[in-house]
Specification:
The complex is a heterodimer.
Chain A (H helix, E strand, L loop, with lengths): L2 E7 L1 E3 L22 E3 L1 H17 L1 E8 L5 H10 L3 E5 L9 H14 L5 E5 L10 H9 L2 E13 L2 E7 L3 E8 L2 E5 L11 H7 L3 E2 H11 L5 H17 L3 E5 L19 E7 L8 E2 L4 H13 L5
Parallel strand pairs in A: 1-4, 1-6, 4-5, 5-12, 6-10, 7-10, 11-12
Antiparallel strand pairs in A: 2-3, 7-8, 8-9
Chain B lengths: L9 E4 L2 E2 L2 E2 L1 H17 L3 E7 L5 H7 L4 E6 L8 H15 L3 E5 L4 H12 L3 E5 L1 E9 L4 E12 L5 E6 L6 E5 L16 E5 L11 E7 L11 E5 L10 H10 L2 E4 L1 H5 L20 E5 L5 H4 L7 E6 L6 H4 L2 E4 L2 H15 L1
Helix pairs in contact in B: 3-4, 5-9
The chains are: A alpha/beta, B alpha/beta.
The complex binds flavin-adenine dinucleotide.
Chain lengths: 304, 342
């Protein structure tokens, strides 16, 4: 028994930190000045999956698609309790919109020997689109339950789920496999465990090890580096610390549905908004100024 | 996916719950009507439900030439799979060029599922929809009269225009209140076309066991005055100031996403691109920087007062009255001034 769970994670820029320092002259954001974080509701998705495994047995696999930097959030998943991580990292996946992204994730999930539950955060804070979860469910050919709050019952092949639809709630019953999109209000994510941090902080994907070797031995010959790379990988493998890195070939993705070509939506143009600073009446922050303003608003019937 | 079809209709997904239309659907009918007129095509609403034929007349009054009505007990309460089946079948059959959904809990569950099944594009939370051309430099093709899906983009004061050049229908979601509701014309005529869609076992695999609705408690859209607090309020306790000021002027309480994310107040109060769009007679923005996503939801207010310590804050660019100062000092003065008048 037990449930094999997959959690889809995204690393996002911390949109809450777009403060003065992160803004450029032209009013756009200096992305480099923004920290990259674990998308908040994906932490709730991870927690929901860990909870199922801890209670009923099974496994938790955390998966992301993105640049190698996103391995940071996968390590965080290991620290918090995930059993396995997979990053889909491929240049040809760049510029994927939500549809192409969900196609690629679906290919990766289909590569797994078995899955019962797929958890996604409801939405990612850099776009708030909430589209990848439902699109991924459709690509996998399974049912979706969005706005997950908790399992009312999880019994063999059926689940009863309570979902919060904003102006109320519902309980729905569905057969597994099932995809759930998890709300921030669903649970409180557990923190990383100190023991697991000690154990997994050295976990790496193969290309990360390659990068580290190149940085550590900038002057060494190609062959020396290869040897060092193989040596380090072997050591990691013995300790179960190699994180999976897959490309589009590994997941047998049809390139016509990936990346720029596979994305039906295209950015036509991006415009910066020029804000004109004139045009408002400045009111001094004093008793007199504010009284005068209130008087004006009452006279013109905006107030009262 | 359907091929681009220049004669295709402009569609609105007509959302109803408990036999009541969601207002956003009527707002979208007004916009869809305008887009259809510009393209010289018909505008239609898709209305799935059980015994809701009557609702068609309101959709027609708000601009629909046709209402595709589906009556089926399986469609009584919204469920993803049968509703998605309906939309996909009808899209494949009638080949509309545009389909717009309200960005509600239902629309945001349904639209991506349909988009994935149709392999079509979808843009969430558009703040404007227009018709225009797209010159694709990559494939050297000029696409005429596409749906321009306009929304603030992540990354500061920028607005992105998104298009779906060839994998149609062109689909978008729009939040409630973004498109101003136009008055309906009960004399308009339109046709109700009854459709039938068969469901298979998979479509009906998710069962609704229990359902509970609460009346809406926050009515931002209908408020004549709104006092909104942002990250500058600093704490949940301090948000009391915003409630107090709203209390004395008889207004509703709004908030920026920063205030909501920090837990100062509930998500129902969020104003902006991914919250509610409001057009009150008076909007008082306290400790709100005025990011483009926030402005998208309030800049059409008749009068805007901004209170902010930072003279450079973008909120001042949309304000009619600006108070450069600490909200902790200014708001109490304001409360006193209003009390003195009353
Ligand atoms: C996809 C997406 C969707 C979004 N949707 C929305 C949305 O719907 N609505 C929304 O609001 N935002 C939205 N945002 C977030 C938006 O980009 C901003 O991050 C947010 O609006 C900032 O809120 P704020 O101005 O209250 O906070 P901050 O950026 O923290 O600004 C606080 C302001 O308060 C001022 N201040 C500080 N102390 C005081 C004081 N004592 N007195 C007076 N002023 C003070 C500061 O000068 C500053 O201007 C979205 C972002 C993304 C990426």
């Amino acid at each position: 028994m037990g449930y094999d769970c997959v959690v889809c994670i995204k690393q996002v820029p911390d949109t809450a930190r777009i403060t003065g320092e992160a803004m450029k002259e032209d009013g756009t954001v200096n992305r480099a000045a923004l920290p990259a974080i674990f998308n908040p509701e994906d932490l709730n998705a991870l927690e929901a999956a860990l909870h199922v495994r801890d209670r009923h047995g099974g496994t938790v696999t955390a998966m992301t698609m993105g640049p190698l930097n996103a391995c940071e959030v996968l390590r965080d998943c290991l620290f918090r309790g995930a059993d396995r991580t997979i990053i889909i990292n491929d240049r040809r996946a760049a510029a994927s919109d939500t549809l192409a992204t969900s196609y690629i994730l679906s290919r990766a999930i289909r590569t797994l020997p078995r899955y019962d539950l797929v958890f996604c955060g409801r939405q990612a804070i850099d776009g708030d689109t909430a589209q990848v979860g439902p699109q991924l469910a459709e690509k996998l050919g399974i049912a979706q339950v969005t706005y997950f709050e908790r399992f009312v019952e999880l019994d063999g092949r059926t689940a009863r789920v309570r979902r919060n639809v904003g102006n109320g709630w519902e309980v729905v019953e569905a057969r597994l496999p099932l995809l759930l999109t998890v709300l921030g209000s669903a649970n409180t994510p557990r923190p990383p465990s100190a023991r697991r941090v000690m154990r997994y902080k050295r976990a790496r994907t193969e290309p990360e090890v390659g990068k580290e070797v190149a940085e550590a031995m900038p002057k060494a010959s190609e062959q020396k580096r290869e040897e060092e790379w193989a040596r380090r990988l072997e050591a990691l493998k013995m300790n179960g610390l190699v994180m999976d890195q897959w490309d589009l070939d590994h997941v047998e993705a049809d390139l016509q549905w990936c990346g720029w070509a596979g994305s039906p939506t295209k950015v036509h143009r991006v415009q910066s908004i020029v804000l004109t600073k004139e045009g408002y009446t400045e009111i001094p922050p004093t008793e007199e100024g504010v009284h005068q303003l209130i008087h004006e608003l009452i006279v013109d019937r905006t107030l009262g | 996916m359907i091929e681009p079809n220049r004669k295709g209709e402009v569609w609105v997904f007509a959302e109803q719950e408990d036999q009541t239309l969601n207002e956003v659907s009527l707002e979208l009918c007004g916009k869809a009507r305008a887009l259809a007129d510009q393209l010289g095509v018909k505008m239609a609403a898709v209305l799935p439900g059980c015994n809701v034929r009557e609702l068609s007349y309101r959709l027609i009054a708000h601009g629909a030439d046709y209402v595709y009505y589906l009556h089926d007990p399986q469609l009584e309460s919204y469920r993803t799979l049968p509703y998605a089946r309906v939309l996909c079948r009808l899209i494949s059959k009638h080949k509309p060029q545009i389909v717009i959904y309200g960005a509600t809990a239902i629309g945001r569950d349904l639209a991506p599922r349909v988009a994935s099944q149709m392999r079509a594009g979808l843009t969430a939370d558009c703040t404007d929809l227009q018709i225009g051309d797209f010159d694709d430099t990559r494939s050297k093709t000029l696409h005429k009269n596409l749906l321009l899906q306009i929304r603030p983009a992540f990354g500061g004061n920028i607005i992105a225009t998104i298009v779906n050049p060839d994998r149609w229908p062109q689909m978008a979601t729009v939040r409630e209140g973004v498109m101003a509701m136009k008055p309906g014309d009960p004399r308009r005529s339109g046709e109700i076309i009854e459709e039938k869609v068969e469901f298979d076992d998979f479509d009906l695999a998710v069962r609704l066991i229990e359902r509970h609705r609460e009346p809406r408690q926050v009515n931002l859209k209908g408020a004549r005055t709104i006092v909104a607090g942002g990250g500058g309020v600093g704490s949940k306790e301090n948000f009391r100031l915003i409630h107090e000021l709203a209390g004395v002027i008889g207004g509703a309480v709004g908030a920026s996403r920063a205030a909501v994310d920090s837990g100062y107040i509930g998500k129902e109060h969020q104003v902006g691109q991914t919250g509610t769009t409001v057009r009150p007679a008076l909007y008082i923005a306290c400790g709100i920087s005025g990011a483009v996503q926030h402005r998208a939801g309030m800049e059409e207010s008749a009068k805007i007062i901004a209170i902010n310590t930072d003279r450079e804050a973008p909120i001042f660019a949309v304000a009619h009255y600006g108070i450069v100062g600490d909200l902790n000092k200014v708001i109490p003065i304001m409360i006193k001034a209003i009390r003195a008048r009353a």
